[in-house]
Hints:
Radius of gyration: 23 Å
Structural class: mainly alpha
Amino acid sequence: MSFIQKKYIVVILSCILLGCVIGIYSETPIATICLLSIIGIFVFIGKELALCALLICLPFSFRYIIPQLLEIQTPTEPLLGMLCAVYFLKKILDFTLKNKDNRTRFPFLLPLGFFIFVTFLSTINTPEVFATLKGSIRASIYMLFSLVVYDIVRNRVNLHRISIATFPSAAVAVIWTVIVLIYNIDEWQWTSSYRNSPFTNYSVYGSFTAIFFLVCLSRLMFDNGQYDRFLWTVMAICFGFGLIMCFSRGVWLSVIVAIGFLLLQLGKGVTHRKILFMGIACLIILVTFSLPGVYSSVLERISTTVDINYASNRARLLRWGQALNMFLQNPILGKGYGAFAMLYEEDVALVGTYTAQYQLGAHSEYLQVMAELGIIGLGAWIWLNLSFLLFGLKALKGIENGFYRSIIIGLMASEISLMIHFIVNNLLNGDAIGVPFWGIYGLLPAVVYLAENRSENTTQEDLYRI
């Protein structure tokens, strides 16, 4: 029996044991301890396998309240935490044994480390120290996921396996949600239409779908090599139709900007592709708008964008104003990570008597960072985003291989769409957006490294032409 087969047997037996223990001791700390222990063993056995499991489960994770009244997204966050812990244990061991890594240093290590430092430093001003520390640890684990991805993706084979783990799972989640939305078509424009779907609201659903749509679109537009174009076309149609079913103005704006970035990368010599793409896009929009009730609903939604009397807009402006007020009170380090949810109070005149199920955000990632982490935190956040964009643009100048170029452009377009959407929403606290966002920060430099050292991987590349 091979080592790989033994690993799978251990994993299967561990899952069976975990299920039995949780079923028997679900109301006690024993279930939580066993859950973390089994996940720890699983990650130690195979980090790449654990990463694939995390990506497969990502759209279907669920909120789990452990006996100490702490909530986690299961199984995403336990896997995420264990992956980060194993990564640092490996680094400590390599340092002790003086094992050298031939790869270049993670390019965003300095801005990322500084942003994490400021997140913890903001505890000085927080109204609740324990909550801020807990939130800072959780946020830091998400950020450190970029280092884990960069460490795991070392060749084309790793990239291929991650793609197989990610795209089918995401497609299933999007198709499931589209079916739910069609069933609840009368409530299409409301968050309530997403009940019984993998997503909580249209902002999360739209941003998640846009990530995969843009990568598929980039692959079709920029990779002229040999691969299964039919499969990628089907996936692009799947995610594209999922985007059409989204009713978020922020998602619409972010996708338009990201597609503009894609078109700019085509250059001057491929005008026919731009014309073909624009023609197909206009045809799809025309057909969609011709459906009963769609045109009037979309037009009404767009018209409310600048309507100050619209309840959603007034509530958003109130949160932006509160964020600005919090920043002015503590402009250097802010009010502390997570403080906005602690200090903000809903205005009943604007939102009614409904109490939000989840903690409140500032409806803008940039304003929330500014309010909670001050001008230093906002500077670190902007530094981190600019470092990503400049690194990607610089890499594109020297990479001509269609496969790697298409992946790099797709990852950059996905991240740009999220950065634009973050202007009017804050979504990083959830795993469905937090994991892809920070994962792309690790995946982009890993793909660039593979492209620049392509000659070392040519023997394995030919085996994976998907």
